[in-house]
Each structure stands twice: as C-alpha cells, then as structure tokens.
Amino acid sequence: MTVLSEDLIAEANAREIAALDEDYDALGRKLARGGLAIDAIKDRVAAFSVAVPSWGAGRGGTRFAKFPIPGEPTNIHEKLEDCAVIQQLSRVTPRVSPHFPWDKVGDYKGLRQEAAALGLGFDAVNSNTFQDQPGQARTYATGSLSSTVAATRAQAVEHNIECIEIGQQLGSRDLTVWVGDGTNFPGQQDFARSLDRYLDAASQVYAALPGDWRMLLEHKMFEPAFYSTVISDWGSSILAAQELGPKAKCLVDLGHHAPNVNIEQIVARLHRFGKLGGFHFNDSKYGDDDLDSGSINPHQLFLVFNELVEAEAHPRDGFDPSYMIDQSHNVTDPIESMLSSAEAITSCFAKALLVDREALHAAQEANDTMMAFQALRRPYTIDVAPILARARAEAGGAIDVLATYRASRWRERKAQERKPVGLGAGIV
Ligand code: PSV
Ligand code: MN
Ligand code: MN
C-alpha cells in the first residue's frame, strides 16, 4: 500500500530525468578523474537510512507558543501515515522512532502491522520520565531515575521496562533514555549522590534489556534543569555507560552540547571506546534548538559524517550507530522539514564517502596541514545532489522530493479529513 500515487511520482520524475542524467554523468566524470566510481557511491547512499521521530510529524512549538496547521496528525496512526509519505518520497527513512507514553495504543502487534503495511518499521523506543502524565502516581518534580524518592525512581524504572516490552512487540532493539533530572540552584542536590541514584536505577533498566538490545544514554547540558543536569555531557554519559555494561552506549544529540564544542571529536572518542550508540540529528544556533539538520551548520554535520565513515573503516569494538532525526518543526510543514533534513543528512554522508582517505592519512602522517585540510575541503564543496536523486529515483522515490510532495497536495487533503489540532487558525 502506498500513501501517495506512484503515478504522480513517476510523472514528476519523467519531467526531471533528462536533467538528472546529464548532471549525474557530469559528476560521474568529475569523480572518475579522482579515481572514484559514482555508481559505487550511489550504492552506498542507497543503503543508507535515518529514522524519523514520531513526535516530529506534528508541529512542535516552544515553551511560548505552538501554531498548529490544518491537516496535522493528531495520533500515532496519522503520524505513521505522514512518515510513510516521507519514506515514499525520500527512500532513506524506513523506520520511525516512537516516544512513550505519547504514542501509547492498546495493540502494539497491530501497530507494527499497520506500519509494515505502510512500508515502515520501528527504530529506538524513547522513554519519557521528564514530564508528569495524567493519572501518574508520583511526580517527577524531584527527578526520575535520580530522584531522592525511592518510589519515584521505581516508577521511572518501571516505565522504562514497559517501553522495552512495547519495543519488543514493535520490533525495536534500542531503548533511548534521556532524563531531565538536575537542579536549578547550587546546593539543591549532591552531585555524587544524584549520580549514584541514577546509576542504581539505570542498572535495573539495563538488567531488563533483552539479549540483543542496547540502552542508549542521551546526555544534555541543560534544560529543564538550568544549574546542573545529572547526565549533562559526553563525559558523564560514557562513564555511566561504562559502569552499566556493554549494552549501554552513548547517544549524541547534536543540540545538547555547550556552544562551540567539537562534536566530531566527541564522536571519534566515543567510537574509540566502543560506546558510540547513535545520534539525534538536528541543528542548533544557541542551545537545544531542534532546528532542521544542516540548516545552520552543514559543515559540522559533514565533519561528524567524516568521523563516522572513518570509524566504520576502522571498527574498534564494532560500529553500529543508530541514526535518528530529533527536530521540532515550528514554522514549516513537518513533512517538508524532514524531507529536507533527510536530504541534508544523506548528502553529508555522501560527501564523507568522497574523502580521499589515503591522501588524508598521508598528509596527516607527513604533518602537511594544508593538504590534510584540502582532503576534507574538496569533497565538502562538491554538489552530491545528483547521487542522492539517482538513488531515490531507482528505489521508486522522487527526484525532487519537495516539489513532488507539494504536487501531491497531501496536507490540503489531510486538512479535509483530520480533526483540527487545538486553536490553530492555520491561515498565514
Ligand atoms: C530532549 O531535549 C530530547 O532531545 C530527547 O531526545 C527527548 O526524547 C526529545 O528531545 C523530546 O522532544
Ligand atoms: Mn534528542
Ligand atoms: Mn533535545
């Protein structure tokens, strides 16, 4: 079952194919001069994928406002439909990362079948102990896994175990744990004892992981706690992961670091110690902005992928990071943002594949700084769009994803069918 008409995509592609062939052939000749076979790069790109977040399918909003749009999904079923649109057009987003209890339903086996019928699977399951939910016995105002209140810690452990059980029914194999636990005042809590409590509770979650599962620890420097956060940085994250055991890995959300931190170096460090578990891709100008991937600092995204391609070529203790998008779409149609982000992420991967690693390593060994830099600079400046478009078209996706999406009038059609969200006027 396809959500968009295959004919619509085929007709749109027919209008673009001649220009794409020309661009692909020209790029192929350019790459061949450097000893690269464009078809081999295209095959690697065709095998690449990144999961989309169920929560990213709706308009996110900020602490101050939310501006819903007509036709926005209001439940996990409608979110899956929208994710299927992204996958049908882009062919790089075959999995959805669900968040609980936001995506709670009665029948998870049924949900898995529903997703499969739409051409989708499930990625990492995200637990939520950073908000109180209606009917919840204990508040997380004192923290969750690190709370001073034993019954609250037990509740948070139980929720994470429930997420694992749901994930097993959905076919996931990772549990992503981000806790907002921390403090707003110096002296509010003891740094060491908070971490002890977190580790003790997290180890109970860890003990419930099925054999082939991983627990991805997501760190974040601040927000909602503005003085200290229990798992605040990659240092705390890797120490916790090392303490918990081999199935615990670190997840890097690109927006969760102090300003100007060298994230690509963190990636290399985590890989060196076998603890690179995955990513939440997004972009950031000031903090955890959840802006669209590559919209602010595409160069950083490229440098991250450069480390990933390097790591894959030199696996220390395996190499299997989960790639997910984690964005909040406040002023765009979320489908368009995720189409554009998936393209930005995939193009950084493709550019990283173009790096002449022999030349790079030789320049590094010879301390030839300029040539080492040029080994990264040259591929970064190459427009890889024809490679991505060709890979998409061969898989049945759209050459021009955004134009084809607009031509489908998906959102307008859904605006007629779906119930309106909140107070959104929706008229610009
Ligand atoms: C926290 O800021 C975070 O990045 C975590 O991944 C949460 O699960 C997600 O955002 C919620 O939007
Ligand atoms: Mn995140
Ligand atoms: Mn975040």
From TrEMBL:
A GO molecular-function annotation: isomerase activity
Stored SUPFAM superfamilies: Xylose isomerase-like (SSF51658)
Keyword Metal-binding on entry: yes
Superkingdom to which the source organism belongs: Bacteria
Keyword Transferase: no
Keywords, ordered alphabetically: Isomerase, Manganese, Metal-binding
UniProt-recorded name of the protein: L-rhamnose catabolism isomerase
Native organism: Novosphingobium anseongense
Gene label: rhaI
